[in-house]
């Protein structure tokens, strides 16, 4: 019980402070779960990130669920999801109710929080790079991943880069057998298989149930399909939801206003579904939409991670993981540049603030929470001038 409470409190803190989108969240997770609390090791965390990049659904939320699963079993995964998702869900319900009254997306503190995300991700990339991308071979794979993601503008580019790195790793690291550090997941085999079966059954059945229905059942079906079929995280789910909901359920302007709000609050971008559900069908619609879009990712984590933990002990798989982990650093570095840096750092003062926050985090060992508060205050001050 105490462990579950601890998981909830830590994930809630991350849900309140993790601004900047999915890749930034991985930086916050790295700082909190790996560096500070040491709930998982460096290589185990990189393995988990890599696996969640391959799965459909909200990758950063799935990483959080996976760490909750490691720390506190199935209940730990559930409370980790609740803690990380609750703040943004509540805020987006409020946004949906008050959307016509307020617009906080251009507030000064929001710009400051974007600068915080740059510093957080930069620190995470540096920390992971010094562990996972050291030496000519690993560095080559990191640069290959960086180039692939930056030059190929396609949602599946990340998956392709990771697959290529895995194949190259199998040949490049024959003389470097290496353990990635187990995740120690203890989930009964029957439960994992049941989760995978349920994932498929719901994906097939819900569209048929919703075909001749309306209201919450139809909304739930759309959200579950979005969570089950979309690779690449929050930004990639935008066209899927827009095609499914506009103009039958809400206007295009209302849709885009909600997406802007989802990027302005901390936590997972998939809580955009909370806003949409609330606009379409009130509070109950918001709750059902949230649960439906995250459920596929949870079922996949519960179903895949225990088997993955067994498979990864194979020597060939271990060599492939060396390559994948190096590529993960390159993918994070690409995301640090675009969209995080390019959408946040506009002036020399912005860069100066980012560098100062980075130094406080990296060299003065200040907590991410303090960095978030400081960044918000500095952004607000800048907004006054």
Automatic annotation (TrEMBL):
UniProt keyword annotation of Phosphoprotein present: no
Entries under Pfam families matching the protein: Chromate_transp
Keywords, sorted A to Z: Cell membrane, Membrane, Transmembrane, Transmembrane helix
Membrane-protein topology: Multi-pass membrane protein
GO molecular function: chromate transmembrane transporter activity
Any one GO cellular component localisation term in the record: plasma membrane
Predominant localisation class: membrane
Source organism, top-level taxon: Bacteria
InterPro entries: Chr_Tranpt_l_chain, Chromate_transpt
Ranges annotated as spanning the membrane: 74-97, 109-127, 139-170, 190-210, 222-241, 283-308, 320-337, 343-361
Secretion signal, residue range per the UniProt entry: none
Subcellular location: Cell membrane
Name by which UniProt lists this protein: Chromate transporter, chromate ion transporter (CHR) family
Family label: Belongs to the chromate ion transporter (CHR) (TC 2.A.51) family.
């Amino acid at each position: 019980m105490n462990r579950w409470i601890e998981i909830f409190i830590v994930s809630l803190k991350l849900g309140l402070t993790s601004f900047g989108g999915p890749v930034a969240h991985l930086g916050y997770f790295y700082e909190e779960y790996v560096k500070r609390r040491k709930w998982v090791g460096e290589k185990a965390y990189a393995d988990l990130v890599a696996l969640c990049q391959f799965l459909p659904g909200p990758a950063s939320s799935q990483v959080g669920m996976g760490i909750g699963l490691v720390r506190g079993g199935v209940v730990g995964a559930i409370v980790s999801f609740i803690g990380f998702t609750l703040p943004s869900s509540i805020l987006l319900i409020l946004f949906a109710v008050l959307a016509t009254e307020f617009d906080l997306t251009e507030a000064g503190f929001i710009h400051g929080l974007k600068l915080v995300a740059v510093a957080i991700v930069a620190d995470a990339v540096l920390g992971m790079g010094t562990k996972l991308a050291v030496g000519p071979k690993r560095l080559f794979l990191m640069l290959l991943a960086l180039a692939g993601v930056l030059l190929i503008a396609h949602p599946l580019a990340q998956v392709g880069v990771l697959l290529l790195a895995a194949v190259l790793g199998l040949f490049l690291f024959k003389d470097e057998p290496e353990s990635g550090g187990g995740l120690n997941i203890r989930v009964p085999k029957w439960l994992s298989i049941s989760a995978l079966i349920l994932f498929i059954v719901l994906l097939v059945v819900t569209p048929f149930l919703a075909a001749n229905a309306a209201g919450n059942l139809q909304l739930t079906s759309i959200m579950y399909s979005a969570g089950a079929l979309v690779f690449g995280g929050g930004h990639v789910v935008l066209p899927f939801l827009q095609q499914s909901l506009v103009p039958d359920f809400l206007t295009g302007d209302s849709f885009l206003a909600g997406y802007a709000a989802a990027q302005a609050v901390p936590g997972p971008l998939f809580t955009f579904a909370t806003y949409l559900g609330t606009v379409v069908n009130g509070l109950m619609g918001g709750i059902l939409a949230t649960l439906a879009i995250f459920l596929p990712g949870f079922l996949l984590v519960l179903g895949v991670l225990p088997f993955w933990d067994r498979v990864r002990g194979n020597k060939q798989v271990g060599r492939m993981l060396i390559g994948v982990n190096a590529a993960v650093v390159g993918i994070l570095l690409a995301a640090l540049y675009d969209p995080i840096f390019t959408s946040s750092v506009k002036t020399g003062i912005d860069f100066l603030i980012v560098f100062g926050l980075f130094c406080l985090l990296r060299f003065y060992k200040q907590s991410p929470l303090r960095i978030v508060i400081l960044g918000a205050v500095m952004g607000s001050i800048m907004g006054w001038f």
